[in-house]
Design brief:
Layout lengths: L1 E6 L6 H15 L3 E6 L12 E4 L8 H18 L3 E5 L1 H10 L7 E4 L10 H11 L4 E4 L2 H6 L6 E3 L16 E7 L8 H10 L2 H4 L3 E5 L5 H10 L4 E5 L3 H7 E6 L8 H8 L3 E5 L2 H6 L7 E3 L3 H13 L1 H12 L7 H16 L1
Parallel strand pairs: 1-2, 1-4, 2-3, 4-5, 5-6, 6-7, 8-9, 8-11, 9-10, 11-12, 12-13
Length: 345
């Protein structure tokens, strides 16, 4: 089967990591895979499939905006893929419009919550266009319910992108957060929550933030203002941090899935997340993690429990490990192959 993956750009994001896993995994099973992208490839991911660049955005003007649909359509007609899998809402919309009335199987994939798109116009455009996709994959039950107007839809989780350690490492008193330093990741509320913790308790722990983004300077300034000792480590090998960290905090304001919740679980971290759709999909509160409200006081209250109680941390970490097999790449590829056949039929 010839599969064409389409994404706007190959940068440092969760969708790109999923694309890498799918293209490599399906390629290993004998499918012919190609990746089409329109902006840049930062070379951060090793993708075994052929990669093709189609320059759609270097030219400005109204004419170029409409010409892109014709150029995409011409490429698809020449490539003759059996299946097209597109990534993220804007690319999904572009592909659905560009391939209208062509005999094709096009699966759109969503990697953010349906409510993250704020513009009423673009939400209406997205929801209308998705009705003409052959299928749609989402990451959680909330989005599955929202997109009830799509005929073929499926919850297919992201695979775990890291290899589980043979034995669980010994933990240090480290509270870790991993994610882009952007507003949507909720770091401001998290830092305010840290400032509410007893200083004596917080002083026993190291707080580490892993990630880069446009809010880095503002967050460092806020940490200084709140007199918090937070180590910003940038974009590094996160596996070594998971190995050491006893606690993982994901304070996002919106999260369709939360790859870090899966990754940290296989390394035995006790997880605390805010009540996003993704966290509710991956955590059963007080069984394999804790879920708090978005307010700093709620985050602080739950984090205090984790920092004070080692037995609680160990119990939650053990509970999270019970679901480890669900996120193995082979299991996810199996689901994808079944869904592709469903959409083709």
């Amino acid at each position: 089967m010839k599969i064409l993956f389409v994404i706007s750009a190959i940068r440092n994001g969760g969708a790109e990591r999923v694309l890498q896993a799918l293209a490599n995994g399906l390629g290993e099973r004998g499918h012919e895979c190609e990746v089409l992208y329109f902006e840049e490839d930062q070379g951060r991911y090793e993708i075994a499939a052929k990669k093709t660049f189609l320059d759609l955005y270097s030219r400005g003007g109204l004419k170029a905006k409409f010409e892109k649909f014709a150029r995409i359509r011409a490429f698809v007609k020449a490539a003759k893929p059996d299946v097209i899998i597109s990534f993220m809402d804007q690319t999904n919309i572009n592909m659905i419009i560009a391939t209208a009335f062509l005999p094709r199987t096009l699966i759109a994939t969503e990697h953010v919550g349906h409510d993250l798109l704020r513009s009423p116009f673009w939400r209406l455009t997205r929801d209308f266009s998705y009705r003409f996709a052959s299928g749609l994959t989402v990451l959680n039950r909330a989005d599955y319910g929202y997109y009830s107007f799509v005929k073929n839809r499926e919850i297919i989780h992201n695979p775990c992108f890291l290899k589980a350690p043979a034995t669980l490492p010994k933990k240090e008193k480290i509270v870790l957060s991993v994610g882009r330093l952007e507003k949507v990741k909720g770091y401001e509320n998290y830092f305010l929550a840290l400032s509410l913790l007893p200083r004596e308790l917080l002083g026993q722990w190291r707080v580490v933030v892993c990630g880069e983004g446009s809010e880095e300077a503002a967050l460092k300034a806020l940490a200084s203002k709140l007199n918090l000792n937070i180590k910003f480590v940038g974009h590094v090998d996160v596996a070594t941090l998971y190995e050491k960290a006893a606690v993982l905090v994901l304070p996002s304001l919106s999260e369709a899935f939360g790859n870090v919740l899966v990754e940290s679980a296989i390394f035995g971290c006790a997880r605390l997340a805010t009540a996003t759709a993704g966290a509710k999909e991956l955590i059963k509160s007080d069984r394999d993690g804790l879920i708090s409200d978005f307010e700093p006081s709620s985050i602080a209250s739950n984090l205090k429990k984790l920092l004070e109680d080692e037995d609680l941390r160990q119990r939650l970490a053990a509970g999270a490990l019970e679901r480890k097999s669900e996120f193995e790449t082979s299991q996810i590829i199996d689901k994808w192959e079944k869904f592709i056949q469903k959409c083709k039929n």
